[in-house]
Design a protein that fits this description.
It is built from 25 helices and 20 strands. It has about 700 residues and is an alpha+beta fold. The radius of gyration is 35 Å and the shape is elongated. It is found in: Cell membrane; Membrane.
């Protein structure tokens, strides 16, 4: 989100004026529709009065202006909140400006417009210049300012093979970039598409509150009509315009006028966190979330496990384990696979060049979420190649592979989760017990063991260590304080899972989890009456994301995951689920605070306007004027003015939120009653008295 959103008042005022359409108000804001009907009635009555008497009553004209202002202030608050939501798209669009790009053509640099670039073009971007389009760095090092997208103030280092985003600026350095995005299909284009297609149907509680407020308004209409005809029958209150004023003063116009803005503001606050909510219902549900189901990797840990040790089994040596793990990782471009090769190199346990070359051309066994192992398969049986004795094996594993090569026999080298690899090897009880002891010892340290096997025999264990994310313990503490139950899903063995969960303060976890386990856990929690949030990024996460009350997909995830979720985190940071829950609860707190304030306002306004309307018809009851207001006319005008101006006065609170502090519902209720309830009672009395004094000073009323 841009740091400062400048409100385009011309656009906002025009939008707010268009929303005065009775048809729009009837469907979106029934309370304001009733107020507008009152204004229409007052206008007709004042017009007829003017034709009959030669001039309309000044009080009636003033009340007409105030009623119209009340409705307009409501549509204005909604238009301002919607403008802030659209500002994100406008800001992203501004980043797509057409700039001069330094395109490489042979040995020459040719300046072209960035809109003319196509995938495959290579451009040079120097210090102070903007990256013209999404691409990858071919050479050079630069520090790039991405704050306009991520909010991070520090420039990000970009080197060979790193991705750069069009519209970001090079702060220092010089890079060559290969363009990969076509016009209209850049990262910023995708963000704008996500935001523009996100819809905000009314939230469930918003609908229920609207129904409640509508019911109250209908009740007040009946009460007002009854009082009007009762007093008129005894010779008092003959002015129907005052009946309209009394009705509007009683109706919960404050919350009715601000309710749409509160809902839009919730979505906008998430947008400011680079989270796109596809619907307001998801934001509302976030406030009720009491269970979060998430993966360990990427959420609790950094997700970049590194090899730290090789542990041999039986008569094998550390070198044997390193050589086997190295060969199994030749086709593995993950951080994990690369770290295994780097650890083997650092220890001097590199396989013979012949075996490395053979592994590069061998069939790769890709990792699968069900088999949970990967490696290589040497298929020498197709081309028997006698071992000429030119290679001296440096390890037992190398010797066995080279001998198999000499005989033309197939050899498989794999690494993977211990339980998965144990299913494909043949080991006696003693070896399995030894593996179990290693797994338990490694797991207690919060590390992850990978079992390495040569054909059907276990060779040893590779120990992987993943770092706990910085600040994750504090975020877990905050969620627990909010009463949220955390369920960690991991493919690790139970010992490792328990150690990591204990370290970060999580009680509930699912170890050795398969893809369907996340969905099953979501369904179990929902059956127990919980509101569940799920984080995911893979296609296998899609069912759980769709089933969850709040599904948060990472922007770096698959299309299936993003389509199934009702929120998308553009920064792909799973720990931001804390902020999602907080924004949801801020929304609830704000709605509760303004509702409390509005209802207490209505009670207070009743004691200011009703006595003065009665006193206007029956002067002998002027003793009811306990506030010492100047006259019935000034009191009615002061009350109606306050009723109107309180709406724009509370717009900043509706947009910013009433704030959220971790507390029980009883504590939140007590806080709302004390701050907004008491404030809702006191404020009208003080404000109406001051407005009355001002009206008298100005000679009005």
């Amino acid at each position: 989100m841009p740091p400062d959103v400048k409100i385009q008042w011309t656009s906002v005022l025009w939008e707010s004026a268009k929303k005065l359409n009775p048809a729009y108000l009837f469907g979106e804001n029934p309370i304001m529709f009733v107020v507008e009907l009152g204004a229409f009635f007052t206008a007709v009555y004042a017009t007829l009065e003017g034709l009959r008497e030669g001039a309309a009553s000044a009080l009636h004209v003033q009340l007409l202006v105030i009623l119209l202002a009340t409705v307009w202030f409501s549509t204005l608050s909604e238009s301002i909140s919607e403008h802030q939501a659209r500002a994100r798209v406008d800001y992203l669009r501004s980043l797509e400006k057409d700039v001069v790009a330094h395109k490489l053509v042979g040995d020459r640099v040719v300046d072209v417009r960035s809109s003319e670039l196509v995938p495959g073009d290579v451009v040079v971007v120097g210090e102070g210049e903007y990256v013209p389009r999404d691409g990858y760095v071919l050479e050079g090092i630069a520090y790039v300012d991405e704050s306009m997208l991520t909010g991070e103030s520090e420039p990000v280092e970009k080197k060979k093979d790193d991705r750069v985003i069009g519209g970001t600026r090079v702060v220092r350095g010089r890079i060559r970039v290969e363009i990969v995005a076509e016009p209209g299909k850049s990262y910023i284009d995708r963000l704008m598409a996500l935001i523009q297609t996100a819809k905000r149907p009314k939230m469930k509680s918003e609908v229920m509150l609207s129904i409640l407020l509508g019911g109250l308004s209908l009740t007040f209409l009946v009460i007002t009509a009854s009082l009007y005809f009762a007093l008129r029958s005894v010779g008092g209150w003959a002015d129907p315009v005052l009946a309209v004023a009394f009705l509007v003063a009683l109706m919960p116009t404050t919350i009715g006028g601000l309710l749409p803005a509160i809902g839009v503001a919730g979505v906008t606050r998430l947008m400011a966190e680079n989270i796109v909510a596809k619907s307001g219902k998801a934001v509302e549900a976030a406030g009720d979330v009491d269970v979060i189901v998430f993966d360990k990797t990427g959420t609790i840990t950094e997700g970049s496990r590194s090899a730290v040790a090789f542990i041999p089994l039986k008569n094998y040596t550390e070198r044997d384990v390193a050589v086997a793990a190295y060969l199994a990782s030749v086709g593995d471009r993950t951080h994990e696979g690369i770290s295994i090769i780097e650890l083997a190199k650092s220890k001097g346990y590199v396989p013979e060049d012949l075996l490395v070359n053979e592994a590069l051309s061998a069939r790769k066994i890709s990792f699968d979420v069900r088999t949970r192992f990967s490696g290589v398969e040497f298929s020498w049986y197709r081309r028997k190649s006698p071992f000429a004795g030119t290679v001296t094996p440096l390890s037992e594993v190398s010797r066995r592979i080279l001998e198999a090569r000499e005989r033309g026999e197939r050899v498989t080298v794999i690494k993977g989760s211990v339980d998965s690899v144990l299913e494909v090897v043949r080991e006696d009880r003693a070896t399995r017990e030894a593996i179990a002891r290693i797994v338990e010892e490694v797991g207690r340290r919060g590390e992850t063991p990978l079992l390495v096997a040569l054909n059907d025999e276990a060779v040893g264990v590779v120990v992987l260590k993943d770092r706990i994310k910085e600040g994750v313990k504090e975020k877990i503490r905050r969620l627990k304080k909010m009463g949220v139950k955390l369920v960690m899903i991991t493919g690790d063995n139970p010992v490792t899972a328990e150690a990591i969960a204990r370290e970060v303060g999580i009680k509930h976890y699912v170890a050795r989890a398969k893809p369907e386990d996340k969905l099953r856990r979501v369904e179990e929690e929902q059956l127990e009456g919980h509101v569940v949030a799920v984080l995911g990024d893979g296609t296998n996460d899609a069912p759980a994301l769709a089933k969850a009350d709040v599904g948060i997909a990472m922007n770096s995830g698959t299309r299936a995951a993003k389509e199934a979720a009702n929120m998308i985190d553009l920064d792909s940071d799973p720990t931001k689920v804390v902020r999602v829950v907080e924004v949801g609860r801020e929304l609830q707190t704000t709605r509760g605070a303004i509702t409390t304030f509005s209802i207490m306002n209505d009670i207070a306004k009743y004691f200011t306007i009703f006595p003065m309307i009665v006193a206007r018809s029956f002067p002998q009851l002027s003793w009811l004027n306990f506030m010492g207001l100047h006259s019935p006319e000034s009191a009615i005008l002061a009350t109606m003015i306050f009723n109107a101006v309180i709406i724009p006065s509370l717009i900043p609170l509706a947009l910013r939120g009433a704030g959220f502090k971790v507390a029980s519902y009883s504590e939140l209720l007590a806080r709302n009653l004390l701050v907004y309830g008491l404030g809702g009672v006191v404020t009208p009395f003080v404000a109406i008295k001051l407005i009355d004094v001002l009206l008298v000073y100005l000679g009005v009323g």
